Amino acid sequence: MQWNTDRRGFLKAAGMGLAAAAAMPRFGWAAEGDTLRLRVGADFQVLDPFGIIGELDDIIPRCTNVTLVRLGDMREGNAVRPWAAEKIEWLDGTRLAFTLREGLTWTGDFGPVTAADVKFSFERIAGSDSAWAYQFEKLKEVEVIDDRNGIIHLTEAFAPFMVIALPYYGGHIVCQKAVEAAGGSYTTEIPAQCGPYLMEAWEQNQKVTLVANPDWTGEKPAFGRVEFYIVTDDQAAQLAYEADAFDFTRVAVGAASQLKGAMPEGAALIEAASTRYAWLTINMNAEPLKDIRVRQAIQYAYDGEAVLAGAYDGLVARSTGVVPPTSGYARASNLIAARDVARAQELLAEAGAEGLEVNLYALTDGTSQTIAQIIQANLAEAGITVNIQPTEEAAYWALGDKTAGEGYKSVELVLMNFAGGIDPTENLVWFRPDQIGIYNWSFFDSAEYEDLYQASMTEQDTDKRRAMFNRMEDLMEESGGFIFICFEPYLAIHDANLVPVILADGHPDPVAFRKA
């Protein structure tokens, strides 16, 4: 594998391409041949499913590893189909039997993919400190019948297990022998691969290249080569796309009107509802925010309409929580549904917090910085000074991580957004008490919330589940630890003779991309 961390050549080429973007039309694109070029917003950090963090962390294993099942496009209902499993079926409410396809072989002479690999992959995450342990919370064990057959045993009936645990993140199957030989885990170099593609090269913070796996016996991908170009800024990515730097990219929501008015020649636009949810974390453990009246003052000072108009071009409504409106389980409204600056000022005075000054951390992309600036202006009207702290991706995800030191206890405000899932429990899981110091950066700690979460996992009645989810979001808002912003619309542009597949988390599935 080629490893290249020199940025100079890349930056020179990128500068030339972006400078020329406005002047030159798109020309013949690579996906007409055998290469698919995709833009992503950040480099990968951890490829081991145990420690996956960001977008590319999960996209690469979708290409280089297998999962028992695979999801279809989110715009077409997230259909589930067998993938590494030749057959998979529920024997009853707590037993899920699978048979692996023949011909799945690990690189590095580690032999075939086996049911023992499935057992190792799932059981090392279940009950661990992995962020994805929730996927296997109802896992009792994986029983190995023989090399290709096994039975997944659950502690309780949990129908969403198929779409929560198996298709991605912790569901990626790893090679037991290879991982154990590597010391039990890995980060940037996969010790054994089995997928339609193999890692060929990594130019850090610039580009990742995959090539077709010659030993792959499954469904052949449409392209022999996939190149991921890492461009953090959406506007820069759009210009680079117009300069023919790649074939697919997400774009900023604010670009929707411009693109609809004048699409680049030969391009198509994807505009869809998504499960990606944005919110403002208010850390109730941070000293200036320990008084609930102070946190509520921030909630009252927030102007949701201004944020939606300024950052999202009015394309979406304010969210009432982290459960998507498309799920049928969302709350009817926020408890604090309207802005009230006078009430915010009263609460600050009651708490003796006049002249409050706080730090707001946000990623460096244009949308995040626009939201941060609007929040800064909102809170200033109530007498709160907000210092915006633009933060690059790697440092950002360390902010609330207890393994990175004691700083997570005192981070004050953080603008956050997560890729959502299909079942509401996938979005609500991050705010449980055991996620404090992992992804629960508000220090929200509610026993009632945890009880409701557990009950919702096995409840079969839709109305009862909805009531549970709504109460959980009430508890979040009542804590003063959250301001719900929106479910971000999904916008992307791509070459018109390319058919993309976008999964439920909003990430592309390169394996399923095809030519129109």
Describe this structure in words.
Helix content is 28%, strand content 22%. The protein contains 15 helices and 21 strands. It has helices at residues 8-21, 55-64, 115-123, 161-164, 176-181, 234-242, 256-261, 292-301, 304-312, 341-351, 366-381, 393-398, 425-428, 447-458, 462-478; strands at 2-4, 35-40, 69-71, 80-82, 85-92, 95-100, 139-144, 149-154, 197-203, 207-212, 225-230, 248-250, 267-272, 277-282, 357-363, 385-391, 413-418, 482-487, 490-495, 498-499, 514-515. Helix 11 links the parallel strand 15 (357-363) and strand 16 (385-391). The model is unreliable at 1-32 (pLDDT under 50).
How many strand segments?
Answer: 21
Low-confidence stretches: 1-32
The chain-level structural class is: alpha+beta
Q: How is the largest sheet built, in terms of strand order?
A: 1-9-10-11-2
Percentage of residues assigned to helices: 25-40%
Shape: globular
What percent of residues are in strands? 15-25%
Oligomer: single chain
State Rg.
23 Å
Q: For the record, give the distance between the C-alpha atoms at the N and C termini, rounded to a whole number.
A: 32 Å
Q: Name the average pLDDT.
A: 91
Counted by DSSP, the helix tally is 15
Profile the largest sheet: 5 strands, mixed
